Amino acid sequence: MVFKSVIVFIILAVMHTAVAQNAGSEFQEATKKVIAAHKAQMKKEAAENQKFNQTVSIFSVNKEDAGNQSLYSVIEDSKPLVGDIMRVYMGDKMMLERRGYYAECITPNFSTNEKPMGGKPWFIKEGEPLCKMNSQSKEYTPSYVNVDSPDGDRKPVTVKYNKKKDTYKVCIKPGGFASLACKKDAKKGDLNEGYGFVSVESSMQRTIEYVGKSNGVVKFIYSEFIENMARDRFTREFEVNLSEGNTAAWKGAIFEIIEANNAEITYRIIRHFPN
User: Fold this and answer.
1) Which helix or strand (DSSP H or E) is residue 6 part of?
2) Which of 54, 104, 167, 208 is the Cys-Cys partner for 95 at CB 3.0 to 4.6 Å?
3) pLDDT for 51-68, tens place per residue?
4) DSSP 3-state assignment of 246?
5) What is the spatial distance between Cα 9 and Cα 111, in angstroms, rounded to a whole number?
6) Where are the domains of the chain?
7) CB count, 10 Å around CB of 55?
8) What is the rounded CA–CA span in Å between residue 115 and residue 147?
9) pTM of the prediction?
């Protein structure tokens, strides 16, 4: 009888161990699935953020430039126009080639900063444009990282208008219902409305800058940018000896030098950079 009881106990113990092992295995499997799903979501968010970072590369607010253009339609935008006679000072850009679209933008005349308890600092920069990414968007996106995070993330900013009080509420929206680094009761003078040029994903920009004149030789700097970052190894200085002619050509761009001294240059655009 004792022998049978021992056998039954052993069988029950083995069954209990098997059930426990099976339950442990199922728990481990479920945990693995949760971790895998979390990693997949993080990877997706990182990819979306990377694409976003590539898209929002440079802003330049100019309402006059956007006046004759369709908003949010990708265009090749080269300034100045062919035939235009321009005058710039030493250090100014003479020619600019870029690809992107014009968007509705606001530029805050204030700055905000907020650090939630145990969290990261969030901020809105004064004088830096915030632009809509498409015509349907109700949010504005900064051209800079607006959270002090090693992830290099950007979060949209919402602007709500209170008609009764004639004020605005400007907040960063990190997700969900949260609002951070808000500027409450902002007046109309606290926000400049206009248009901005948003460079499209991974597009290259090319510029020519005036360096100055010395002993009849006029000097320029050619630069290339991708995602608002200079491609230093493609930066070149070139020059034109006015005793040999007054036409400058570089990388397919051509312009006529009308007058130049060590402070400023007057010139006419003949041809832009080829596509």
Assistant:
1) helix 2-55
2) 208
3) 333 333 334 445 555 555
4) coil
5) 73
6) 1-55, 63-75+100-199, 78-98+202-271
7) 17
8) 10
9) 0.57
